Amino acid sequence: MTENYLDTVFTTEHFSLSELQLTQFQNYYELLTERNKVMNLTAITSWEEVCVKHFLDSVMLWKYIDAAVRIPEGDNKKQERSEEGFNEEIRYSVIDIGTGAGFPGLPLKILRPEIRLTLLDALQKRIDFLDEVIRATGLREAETVHGRAEDVVKKHRESYDLAVSRAVAYLPVLAEYCLPFVKTGGLFAAYKSGDVEEECKASENALAVLGGELEKTEKFVLPDGSKRSLLLIRKVSATPEKYPRRSKKIDKEPL
Ligand code: SAM
Questions:
Q1: What secondary structure does DSSP assign to the chain, as a single string?
Q2: Which CATH class is domain 3-70+86-252?
Q3: What share of the chain in percent tops pLDDT 70?
Q4: Measured from the CB, is residue 98 less than 6 Å from ligand 1?
Q5: Does the Cβ of 148 fall within 6 Å of ligand 1?
Q6: Nearest CA to ligand 1 atom 16
Q7: pLDDT at residue 229 is higher than 70
Q8: Residue 168 CA: which ligand 1 atom is closest?
Q9: Ligand 1 nearest-atom number relative to CA 177
Q10: Which end of the chain is less packed: N or C, by CB atoms within 10 Å?
Q11: What is the pTM of this model?
Q12: For position 133, what pLDDT does the model report?
């Protein structure tokens, strides 16, 4: 494992990493591969593949949404220099729904420590692992929540600037899990692989009902040739209280 590889891969996409961030990614990798021996966290285990398919793939969102989410430029520096903690006005709340082993939420947070991150997953073992990574990397303003999105949403409704989710469900279902968490005016970013036209078409009704609007689709190719799409969905109006429905209903009768 060489630090350089991560640095090189990130530099290709114009992301620069501090020593601290490099160390945080390494610590994360070490825990991921260690705990993966006793629980199911990831099928990808080589350093090179994790750097590309997990770390880089996760942070690519920051290339596209700076303008859309209006994080003022230079806030990274402000946060790094602040000794008393975080500046309230720059806290930007992000929830990762069905985060699994922390993707994309944790890499997004390592790269932008000024965000306030919530990692949500239905499996307690994965939550325990994430708590361990948060401790080992020294990340602040990162919390975990155990439960299914549709069950825990009551406490979190319409309260995040950004919801992200990767590899959790087909978009009409995923939108019902995620959009209720987002503030009106905020964004939901769905990480998808390959072509997404059909999936977008199939989710038109769901988005309209839940108060979302597909604003942009960003397509990119990872250094290993994998095709990815980021669907950027704007929350244009509040989600009606009756959504999300119960788990079975969401799965059986997608909107
Ligand atoms: N997002 C991670 C990634 O891209 O590597 C994990 C993807 S994994 C295939 C799907 C994860 O979503 C699992 O950890 C599962 O427990 C979680 N999950 C599925 N449905 C969920 C729901 N309704 N609420 C919360 N978590 C959910």
A1: --HHHHHHHHHHTT----HHHHHHHHHHHHHHHHHTTTS---S--SHHHIIIIIIIHHHTHHHHSHHHHTPPTTHHHHHHH-SS---GGG-EEEEEET-TTTTTHHHHHHH-TTEEEEEEES-HHHHHHHHHHHHHHT--SEEEEES-HHHHHHHHTT-EEEEEEESSS-HHHHHHHHGGGEEEEEEEEEEEES--HHHHHHTHHHHHHHTEEEEEEEEEE-TTS-EEEEEEEEE-SPPPTT-S--HHHHHHS--
A2: alpha beta
A3: 89
A4: yes
A5: yes
A6: 122
A7: yes
A8: 10
A9: 23
A10: N
A11: 0.92
A12: 98
CA 192 – ligand 1 centroid, Å? 14
> What percentage of the chain reaches a pLDDT higher than 90?
86
Mean pLDDT of 149-165: 96
Is the CB of residue 129 below 6 angstroms from any atom belonging to ligand 1?
no
Q: pLDDT tens digits, residue range 38-77? A: 999 999 999 999 999 999 999 999 999 864 444 444 444 4
Say if ligand 1 is within 6 A of residue 166 CB.
yes
Q: Is 99 in the pocket of ligand 1 (CB under 6 A)?
A: yes
Q: Which protein residue's CA is at the shortest distance from atom 27 of ligand 1?
A: 98
Q: Where are the domains of the chain?
A: 3-70+86-252
